[in-house]
Design a protein that fits this description.
Layout: E1 44-46, H1 50-57, E2 64-66, H2 70-92, H3 94-103, E3 108-112, H4 115-150, E4 163-164, H5 169-173, H6 179-183, E5 188-189, E6 195-197, E7 202-204, E8 210-212, H7 222-231, H8 234-244, E9 251-255, E10 260-263, H9 283-289, E11 293-300, H10 308-321, E12 329-335, E13 339-341, E14 349-350, H11 353-363, H12 374-386, E15 396-403, H13 411-417, E16 424-431, H14 439-446, E17 451-455, H15 461-464, H16 468-472, H17 474-479, E18 487-488, E19 492-493, E20 500-509, E21 524-533, H18 534-538, E22 551-555, E23 561-563, H19 582-585, H20 590-600, E24 605-614, E25 621-632, E26 639-644, E27 650-654, H21 659-666, H22 674-677, E28 679-682, H23 697-708, H24 720-741, E29 751-758, E30 762-766, H25 784-791, E31 796-798, E32 817-828, E33 831-843, H26 844-854, E34 872-874, E35 884-890, E36 895-898, H27 916-924, E37 928-940, H28 960-964, H29 972-986, E38 1007-1018, E39 1025-1030, E40 1036-1042, E41 1048-1054, E42 1071-1072, H30 1080-1083, H31 1118-1130, H32 1142-1145
Parallel strand pairs: 2-34, 4-5, 11-12, 11-15, 15-16, 16-17
Antiparallel strand pairs: 1-39, 3-27, 6-7, 8-10, 9-10, 9-21, 12-13, 12-14, 18-20, 19-20, 20-21, 22-23, 22-26, 24-25, 25-26, 28-30, 29-30, 29-33, 31-32, 32-33, 35-36, 35-41, 37-38, 38-42, 39-40, 40-41
Length: 1149
């Protein structure tokens, strides 16, 4: 019978609606989307008691079809459950595989994972590994100090006197614009041969060291040549270290002059355009060169600071921020008559990547106006440093002031806040080219144990914003052996391509004295470092005995992970450290916060918790039980943890001593057996040292078979545990084919394939041809269906992955399958484990038809129920599919099956993309719970600023009074304006909007960003449930019920009547967070627990503070200034590396 069309305000077919059951509800126009009669716009869900709803559905006077009653839909649900269970029992083979394991009980042993013993052993192995690197570090640091002490300074040293391998020489020879090509290099650069070394992932030379010198440092300066001269002797120590420990990777000496000497030699991996690498800005150097810092940066934004000077200040602050690590705390403020923070941070915050990014963006918004007020700036800074109610470094305290100059010394402020103890160092920076008297700036720095620097041009910024580290290093040098403590860094990306590493650092001190009886030198020479690849540490952890969902992790004092299966940074920008917090690597909860705190405090512990975990494909959330065990790694700042599910307490270890049986089982791995026994994928594991890896599993299997023809599973070059378990599982799964699959007709039940995957690394697909469409990972431990099946009881459905932005499934060309899997649970002598997962692959089209039949009122398979014109019938999912929507949705909210043929190509999509109205109703009725989290490891390319939306450069505009004032013409403001005019004449784009930055600059480099992830999982509702989605007269009835022993939700609903009743769409896909994730301004108010390094060297009574920077000040004539500026602009540009810096010059002894 044809069902009449329905419109807004019209009565529905089915239950009579003449007398509305809702008080006050009568015929009315269809309202706007989800707009109730009054109150805020929101969905209005009228939940009915079952008896009232049933009475409405069966109202007298109803004719034709009515919405199915609750007991009818429960009957359909039971039929669906029985059908799924029957197919899985017959074809899945879970029970049969369980019996096969028991029948082969003599071929394996059940071993136990003892968490406490395991984690203590791994911690001890890691400690031993790192201790060997510590001994090498100490030999290097001692040798460096002795070599430098014995070195005689040479004032007349020349470039041709020094022989060394310049790591950037090859690249510079290929670049006609390089420094050496311009000047004509006089350096005696060695030409070396290199050999490929897989340990370094690079070509290396073990007989020499390599030298890298930053682009902005002149290689021919006396300081650099002397540095190259004495560090050459380190080469033999590097070589001897490697002889004693062949596992050593990069050994590096980072000099305070900027020179890097590393071993073994390898060509420098320079970027395409600009090489900005400077060892003094690397995370490991910063951490080793000084103790943690509390820093307040104050920036003068008075009216005289304009144009080029203001731009120099903004760049200087950003470069200064790059000298800070996660152990440091910082805030930035601007000042004129008043001081105010440049960002939303009102107190010191941790100098992590995200906070520094907030500062850098905020600094760009500074505007010059008003008059200079040093007092306001310094009072703000001291107040910040005296705030003891916040988390901070509590070590070195300093104020960095950037200004163009001024006359006020603010002595009263220093007397009030800093004298006589002078616990806060003051560093002053005179920025821009001006004629102000710099004596007050020098006085501020010298009377407060700081240093005075000048930044006249862009080329001086990088050098002068990092040399303050030399001053902070003085107490360390004076502390002597007490400060010679090895520190281990956070994780970061190696600049030479080694991947993720941690570095052991040890400061190297200048032990020379000016003369007999004189004070000893207090300069730090540099930092010695030795890298340890994370992969080498991972090799010490158990891999496959912990099961698919067990793992080892480690964190440092900041709570950042050193080891974790979810540590997968996508960015290749080595300038940014890899800082993933443990609570961001996993889904945060109170139990994990407690575990994290205990680990940071260096305690041991064990705790079983119920927690949420994200699936490997990041589409699902599972509630699971996990056992956490942790211990500290002695002699380091790290703590090690072990996570085990209860079912991974035990594992199987094959015992295949019978070589005849080994050969028999091995034959089932040969492709010649696939046609009868099913296709076999083997996990790409490191079974033997000589096994060639391949991303193609067919090729990998071929390599494996060829190797096994040469060696036996008991060979010493092979991992016997992995090989024996692989061969055992090959035989076990073949018996499943023989006992169950081979004699079954899969087509009878519309199955595309049956499969089994095991902990031993076998995935067997039957029949063989089904392997052509198999897209799951051949490593079971990396397959989402495998890991989810272990964590869930019953049958886990996995529809094909579809993105709403991609084309729908093309059913006509490809047969689409739905995976259904379940874990095989063994109980052997009271020990329970889950060594395998079995399942079937359903034919989507055939099972969609079967779904309609099972959710119908058929009494006979071939005869759908007919309803006469005068009889009363309930709608079903087969006959009334034009009016009734019936779907199966999985626990993540993804469509699995539908009675609507046009929705078959949408299977696998988030249901809100299919029916937003109904999905929102399910969410609001607690069938689903939403979990939001943030991915901090995504790499994003910055959006280049277009000229259309860019702002012109800030230009200072003088008044008429200024022009009439003779004094103004010799002021800094006049000079700044003159610079702008000259630049505008020479470079016509100066007054235009900023163009996009050149490739290779920091602004265009790929950097980390934050993505917001949203997943849904089943809520608390387990019972059958009826509800009405009300939207005026356009309401929809729906029924939802969980299917027992599955991850499916069965939903029956009226099809939507009106377009006006559309709901807001729930989002599931990953979205970019423009504000870098959760609001940083809110997060810093609730800082996570952390601890700084155990040592702090910020004071020494014998420190000599007389070396505090010098500058020149003279009132230049306008003619001289114009001549100099024209010479600089029209002639050869001055090289910033030719500048002589007091700190660098003081190294000559």
């Amino acid at each position: 019978m044809a069902v009449p069309a329905r419109t807004c305000g019209a009565s529905r077919p089915g239950p009579a609606r003449t007398a509305s059951p809702w008080p006050g509800r009568g015929p009315r126009p269809c309202p706007g989307p989800w707009l109730p009669a009054s109150g805020p716009a929101r969905p209005l869900l009228l939940l009915l008691p079952p008896l009232l709803l049933l009475s409405l559905l069966a109202a007298p006077g109803a004719s034709a079809y009515s919405f199915p009653q609750q007991h009818t839909m429960q009957h359909w649900a039971r039929r669906l459950e029985q059908e799924i269970d029957g197919v899985m029992r017959i074809f899945g083979g879970a029970q049969q595989l369980r019996e096969i394991y028991k029948d082969n009980r003599n071929l394996f042993e059940v071993q136990e994972n003892e968490p406490q013993k395991l984690v203590e052993k791994v911690a001890g192995d890691i400690e031993s590994l790192l201790d060997r690197k510590v001994q090498a570090l100490k030999r290097l640091a001692d040798a460096a100090e002795n070599f430098q002490k014995a070195h005689r300074w040479q004032d007349n040293i020349k470039e041709e006197d020094i022989m060394y391998y310049d790591a950037k020489a090859d690249a510079e020879l290929d670049d006609p614009e390089s420094e050496d090509m311009e000047r004509g290099s006089k350096t005696s650069t060695l030409r070396l041969d290199f050999v490929e070394d897989p340990n370094f992932k690079n070509k290396v030379n073990y007989s020499y060291t390599a030298v890298q010198i930053p682009t902005d440092i002149y290689k021919g300066s006396t300081v650099i040549l002397n540095e190259l001269n004495w560090t050459e002797a380190l080469e033999n120590v590097f070589i001897e270290n490697r002889r004693q420990d062949p596992t050593l990777l990069w050994q590096v000496f980072g000099s305070a002059t900027g020179v890097t000497r590393y071993y073994p030699a390898t060509p420098w991996r320079a970027p395409k355009k600009i090489d900005l690498y400077d060892v003094r800005r690397r995370p490991w150097y910063i951490q080793g060169a000084s103790s943690p810092k509390d820093m307040v940066i104050i920036v003068d934004v008075s009216g005289s600071v304009s144009g080029l000077t203001l731009k120099l200040m903004k760049t200087s602050v950003c470069e200064m921020l790059d000298t800070l690590s996660d152990d440091d705390y910082v805030n930035v403020a601007s000042f004129n008559e008043k001081a105010q923070p440049v960002s939303c941070f009102t107190h010191l915050v941790q100098a992590n990547v995200r906070n520094k990014k907030v500062f850098k963006e905020a600094v760009q918004g500074m505007v010059a106006k008003g008059t200079t007020g040093y007092k306001a700036g310094f009072e703000y800074a001291f107040d910040q440093l005296q705030n003891s109610n916040i988390t901070r470094a509590n070590c070195n305290k300093m104020i960095m002031m950037f200004t163009d100059g001024g006359e006020d010394r603010v002595q009263d402020v220093f007397e009030k806040y800093n004298w006589p103890n002078r616990t806060v160092r003051v560093f002053t920076f005179s920025v821009g080219q001006h004629n102000y008297d710099v004596t007050p700036l020098q006085w501020m720095a010298c009377t407060n144990k700081g240093y005075y620097f000048e930044i006249p041009s862009i080329g001086a910024i990088r050098i002068n914003t990092q040399e303050y580290l030399d001053v902070l290093g003085r107490p360390m040098v004076l502390a002597g052996k007490e400060a010679k403590q090895v520190q281990w860094t956070n994780v970061y990306e190696d600049a030479l391509g080694l991947g993720l590493v941690v570095t052991g650092t040890l400061p190297v001190f200048n032990l020379t004295q000016d003369g007999p009886g004189e004070k000893k030198n207090q300069l730090i020479l540099g930092v010695m470092g030795i890298d340890v690849a994370l992969n080498d540490i991972k090799k010490l952890t158990p891999n496959y005995t912990l099961g698919a969902n067990g793992y080892v992790f480690a964190i440092d004092l900041n709570g950042y992970v050193l080891l974790h299966p979810n540590l997968k940074p996508q960015t290749t920008n080595f300038r940014e450290p890899v800082t993933l917090d443990f609570l961001d690597a996993e889904l945060e909860d109170e139990n994990k916060e407690e575990i994290r705190r205990s680990m940071i405090d260096g305690n041991k512990g064990h705790k079983q918790i119920r927690t949420l975990v994200k699936s490997l494909d990041e589409r699902y959330i599972d509630e699971v039980i996990r056992n956490y065990t942790w211990v500290p790694i002695r002699s380091t700042n790290y703590s090690l943890g072990l996570v085990l599910p209860p079912y991974s307490t035990f594992y199987l270890q094959a015992n295949l001593s019978d070589q005849i049986l080994q050969v028999k089982y091995f034959e089932f791995l040969l492709p010649s057996s696939f046609e009868s026994e099913g296709h076999v994928f083997i996990a790409p594991r490191e079974y033997c040292k000589d096994l060639n890896a391949s991303d193609n599993n067919t090729e990998f299997l071929k390599n494996f078979i060829e190797l096994m023809e040469k060696v036996t599973p008991d060979s010493k070059q092979c991992n016997n545990f992995l090989l024996h378990n692989l061969i055992l599982d090959t035989g076990i799964t073949q018996q499943l084919v023989e006992r169950v699959w081979r004699d079954q007709d899969l087509n009878t039940y519309s199955l595309l394939a049956v499969f089994a995957a095991t902990d031993g690394g076998i995935t067997r697909i039957f029949p063989n041809k089904a392997a052509e469409d198999w897209t799951e990972n051949p490593e079971p431990f990396n397959a989402s269906f495998y890991r989810r099946s272990l964590d869930n009881h019953g049958y886990v459905f996995k529809p094909p992955h579809q993105d709403a932005l991609l084309r729908p499934l093309e059913l006509e060309n490809d047969t689409v399958g739905i995976l259904v899997s379940t874990a095989v649970e063994l109980s052997l002598g009271g020990r329970t484990l889950r060594p395998a997962v079995v399942g079937v692959k359903l034919d989507l089209e055939a099972w969609a038809e079967k779904f309609k039949v099972l959710a119908s009122n058929r009494t006979h398979q071939d005869q759908p129920q007919k309803c006469g014109p005068s009889s009363h019938c309930e709608m079903d999912c087969e006959v009334n599919n034009e009016d009734l929507l019936c779907v199966l949705i999985d626990d993540g909210g993804f469509l699995v099956l539908s009675n609507q043929n046009h929705q078959w190509d949408q299977v696998g999509r988030f249901f809100s993309d299919v029916d937003a109205n109904l999905m929102l109703a399910l969410y609001n009725n607690s069938f689903y719970t939403r979990k939001e989290s943030y991915d901090y490891q995504t790499a994003c390319a910055p959006q280049p600023p277009g000229n259309l939306g860019a702002a012109p450069r800030g230009v200072f505009v003088p008044t008429i009074a200024d022009f009439l004032n003779l004094a103004w013409w010799t002021s800094a403001a006049a000079w700044s304006l003159f610079q702008q005019l000259l630049y505008g004449l020479i470079y016509h784009s100066w007054f235009q909007a900023d163009p996009a930055e050149a490739e290779g600059s920091p602004e265009t480099r790929e950097s980390s960003c934050v993505m917001k992830q949203t997943q849904y999982y089943f809520g608390t509702v387990n019972a059958s449930y009826n509800a009405i989605i009300d939207c005026g007269n356009c309401s929809r009835l729906f029924h939802a019920q969980r299917l027992t022993n599955t991850n499916l939700l069965f939903v029956v609903a009226e099809k939507p009547l009106c377009s006006q009743c559309e709901a807001g769409r729930l989002l599931q896909k990953e979205t970019h967070c423009p504000a870098d994730g959760p609001e940083q301004c809110d997060l810093v108010q609730r800082p996570r627990y952390r601890r700084g390094p155990h040592i702090c060297f910020d004071y020494n009574a014998t420190e000599d503070t007389s070396d505090c920077g010098r500058g020149a000040s003279f009132p230049p004539s306008l003619g001289v200034l114009v001549s100099l500026q024209l010479l600089l602009l029209l002639g050869l540009p001055p090289r910033p590396q030719l500048q002589v810096h007091t700190l660098a010059a003081s190294r000559r002894l």
